[in-house]
Amino acid sequence: MNTKLVTLGLIAFLGISTSSFAQTGKWDENHPRRAEVNGRLNNQDRRIHEERREGEIGRGQAARLHREDHRIRNEERRMAARDNGHITRRDQARLNRQENRVSRRIGR
């Protein structure tokens, strides 16, 4: 009985440690395509704050733009999680199109 418990405990421990090890190698935030997308999102966030501060856009419009940027950032994270911490060129193009739509609405 004790041997079975020790064996089960050991298997559970190895399973947990192996899965946590796999997770540490998955997330590559510094991948060039991810860095480009996230850099654009940071720039757009700064632009929204500037436009709001200067009175060019209202509080409601700024909030909507921030929500859209947040949605794009979450989508980028989901895409990266699917592909071992990277985003594909196709994913990058899709995210860039979404960012372009938001960007055009910031400067109006």
Structural descriptors:
4 helices, mainly alpha, about 110 residues, single chain, elongated
Q: Structural class, please?
A: mainly alpha
Main sheet record: none
Extended strand count: 0
Radius of gyration, Cα only, in angstroms?
21 Å
Taken together, the total number of domains comes to: 1
Percent of residues in beta strands: under 5%
Helix content: over 70%
Order of SSEs: HHHH
Give the low-confidence spans.
17-26
Q: How far apart, in Å, are the first and last alpha carbons?
A: 73 Å
State mean pLDDT (0 to 100 scale): 83
The number of helical elements comes to 4
Judging from the principal axes of the Cα atoms, what is the shape? Answer: elongated
Structure write-up:
This protein has 108 residues and is mainly alpha-helical. The protein has one domain. Helices cover 81% and strands 0% of the residues. The chain contains four helices and no strands. α2 packs antiparallel against α3, α2 (32-53) runs parallel beside α4 and α3 runs antiparallel to α4. Mean pLDDT is 83; it is low at 17-26.
Q: Would you kindly provide a brief summary of this structure?
A:
The protein has helices at 2-24, 32-53, 59-82, 89-106.
Chart the SSEs and their pairings.
Blueprint lengths: L1 H23 L7 H22 L5 H24 L6 H18 L2
Helix pairs in contact: 2-3, 2-4, 3-4
